[in-house]
Amino acid sequence: MKDYYEDLCKFYEIMVGRIPERDSFKEALKKTVSVDDLEIFFKLPLAGNISLPKLQKKSKLHTEELAKRLKKLSSEGFILEYDTDEGRSFERGNPIFMAEQQVRKPEDTPQRRAYIKFFNTGIEGELEEAIETKTPYYRVLAAEPTILASSKLQTVEVNVDLPGGGQVLPIDIVTEMIQRDVDRIGVAQCFCRLTKRHLGEGCEHPLETCFVFNELAQSLIENGFAREISYDDAIEIIEDAEKRGLVHNVDNCAEHIRSLCNCCPCCCIVLKSINRGETFAGTTSRYIVQFDPDKCRVCKTCIDRCPTDARAYVDDRIVVTAEKCIGCGLCVTGCPAGANTMVFRGMSSKLPQTNMKLYAKIGREAVLSILKKKMFGRKSRQPEKVL
User: Fold this and answer.
1) What CATH number does the domain containing 119 carry?
2) Is 63 left (phi over 0), alpha (psi -120 to 50) or beta?
3) Which tens digits make up the pLDDT trace of 156-174?
4) How many domains does the chain have?
5) Consecutive H or E run containing 225
6) Do 100 and 176 share a structural domain?
7) How far is CA 352 from its chain centroid?
8) Verdict on whether the full-model pTM lies above 0.70
9) Residues 145, 79 share a domain
């Protein structure tokens, strides 16, 4: 008999490398979904989506039975389901996405504990034989007031020249991206902070700070993992996150985003990855801080707000390590003396156009990395930083 659970582990390992405590993880899968459910999972395409009529034809199941299996997969976070021009459509989820939804479940079960443990290995960088990819999943967005201050603008404007070169573009402005590219907004609990709280660790920052948009929002809202909110509600949460010193991490694509996280360095899988010197999970904003020591009052606020330890107090003064600056702008918004400003850093590579194209690109890179490793026996390493 075909072992669909083994096949699922192998599929997941394309994205994350060898799954730690694999047997326990596999047992959790068996307690979560049935073999019949996974049979449908593997009828979905490797990338992209498939409409219900096409899937019905492919599965050869009665409408009621197919709907039952799809709902189970969707409600457990194994797939996404949403409406498209072709009607109801379905898409495979990756292992991190599945674990996120399992962590968000309120019931304390053996399988949830297994998924929490799995997700925490990702947070702490303990996944074995991590797959080598060049394109980061997320990128930092600078706190909006810091860019506007740098461009001497009082209102949100885009496609305007900055004094130091470059432009303020829609891809730099969090409110602009949401307003331009989003049809539906949901907010969910931060799965990183939630994981750490389940383990008795982490911080006391708010949990409900993870935004989902468009198709992802529809799927998570319908399955109870997120609640629908308005644009104004979203902006209020974003502004509060900036005040608390949380970093905006958005899908690393130019438009049609699906997610925006507000991250803390003590729990966040992306920020912790960046601080370990890794480059596959997240990358910097298009801006970098410019520090004026003559204006600095040495209040040390910027040291507390910096998520990457780019600030230090040495010999009665503030020292900045520019190589560690991710361009979040939190030192700018927290500085009472105006000693910090944001300047254009640039972007060396073209962004994938949409979230779906982003993940298709990362998937291709992951498969290529695996093939190279099999052919040449190369050990996985982190590629050079991609801005």
Assistant:
1) 1.10.10.10
2) alpha
3) 566 767 666 667 787 888 9
4) 2
5) none
6) no
7) 15
8) yes
9) no
